[in-house]
Amino acid sequence: MIKYTICFLKQQTRFLLLNRFHPPTMGLWNGVGGKLEPGEAPLASVLREVLEETGIHLASAEYKGIVSWDLEGESTGGMHAFIAEVPEDVTFATPILVDEGILAWKELDWLLHPDNAGVPENVPLFLPAMLSTTECYQYHFYYKNQRITSHEMTLLSEPITNR
Ligand SMILES: Nc1nc2c([nH]c(=O)n2[C@H]2C[C@H](O)[C@@H](COP(=O)(O)OP(=O)(O)OP(=O)(O)O)O2)c(=O)[nH]1
Question: Which residue intervals define the domain Nudix hydrolase in the entry (predicted)?
């Protein structure tokens, strides 16, 4: 069951990330998102979460598929993932403190740097693929002792953005 959404908001090469005050991914720089409400479509959910957490009113976001995880052999959850371009004329000054954490623009190179321990371990493994394809995949991660041991990506033949 996919319970969450996540959106990577970008403006050219930089991304608006949230350093989260609370679990999951507490203390790490992650995309913006949250839990789907009952009956809510993934796109509506992610647009709502972006508005609530950043104040940015997006007209739309591009569906990129599902990120899911398997902890110690049990499939425990996942999130519908989106990428959205913030128009150039939208000025969003950071860092800024919000209820959920600290928002700041971070360069893609910083986000993907192999020495960067400040982003969720799975982000550098799925985000480059999402940025380089228009196809939607399920990115599935296997964890043991809270570390990724392997991952796989499978093409989604019927993306489910509006269900
Ligand atoms: N990169 C990454 N993000 C994750 C993982 N697990 C996980 O839940 N997330 C994301 C999905 C959501 O965007 C976010 C968790 O949402 P949340 O619990 O804060 O949801 P919410 O704002 O609706 O929560 P609440 O305050 O109402 O309880 O973290 C993960 O393993 N990697």
Answer: 1-132
Q: What is the pTM of this model?
A: 0.95
Ligand 1 centroid to Cα of residue 73, in Å, is 21
Give the Å distance between the CA of 113 and the centre of ligand 1: 22
d(CA 140, CA 68): 5
Residue 31 Cα to ligand 1 middle (Å): 9
SS3 string, 32-54, reads EEEECCCCCCHHHHHHHHHHHHH
Range of the domain at 75: 4-155
- Report the CATH number that the domain containing residue 147 is assigned in CATH: 3.90.79.10
Residue 31 CA: which ligand 1 atom is closest?
A: 13
Instruction: Kindly report, residue by residue over 63-97, the tens digit of the pLDDT.
Output: 999 999 999 888 889 999 999 999 999 999 999 99
Is 33 near ligand 1, meaning CB less than 6 Å away?
Answer: yes
Q: Could you write out the DSSP letters of every residue in 77-101?
A: EEEEEEEEEPPTT----SSEEETTE
Strand pairing report for 4-11 and 74-85: parallel
**Domain presence at residue 162:** no
Residue 161 in domain = no
If one counts the domains in the chain, the total is: 1
